[in-house]
Design a protein that fits this description.
alpha/beta, about 25% helix, FAD/NAD(P)-binding domain, six-stranded mixed beta sheet, about 170 residues, 2 domains
Length: about 170
């Protein structure tokens, strides 16, 4: 895995979004590699409530949610002052982030995605992404490296003012 030099699609970030993108690209026939500095499964207070459309997207990626490892919910309501958004058709699942992440890692591996865990992105160059001093060239780059995206900063795409502080809560 340390010999990553070139791939058609390079995904920076191996969380749920990056792995889903990698699986979809692989299903479309592309050679795909994922680079992430973490080691799976990654535990964070996000990605635990999968809505009906998310379940359909997972199924399209070849991942069937095991109901024995999930908590079914038939609706959800988001309230912000006087505004409210809800769904009442279909159902969703509450799934531990570590379990969801492991399912995505396993599926990506089954599909032939080249997974490079514990590898830190250290820069950008005209020839590609720099991973721990090595340049990795690709035709396509998918930046799924999260809220504190190093690639967004390196490419000068950070917002002019810092984002508001976010908090994540979890209860099981």
């Amino acid at each position: 895995m340390s010999n990553l030099r070139r791939t058609e699609v390079l995904v920076a970030g191996g969380g749920p979004a990056g792995l889903a993108a990698a699986i979809a690209a692989r299903q479309a026939g592309f050679e795909v590699a994922v680079v992430d500095c973490a080691q799976p499964p990654v535990d964070k207070a996000c990605g635990e409530g999968i809505m009906p459309d998310g379940l359909a997207a997972l199924a399209a990626l070849g991942i069937q949610v095991d109901p024995h490892h999930a908590a079914l919910f038939r609706g959800i309501r988001f309230i912000n002052g006087t505004r409210e958004v809800s769904f009442s058709c279909g159902f969703g699942y509450g799934i531990r982030r570590t379990l969801l992440h492991q399912w995505l890692v396993d599926r990506a591996s089954e599909c032939g995605v080249s997974l490079h865990w514990g590898r830190r992105i250290t820069g950008l160059s005209p020839n590609g992404l720099v991973v721990e001093g090595d340049v990795v060239s690709s035709r396509w780059l998918i930046c799924a490296d999260g809220q504190n995206s190093k690639l967004r900063k390196l490419s000068g795409l950070d917002p002019a003012r810092p984002p508001r502080r976010r908090f994540g809560f979890r209860r099981h």
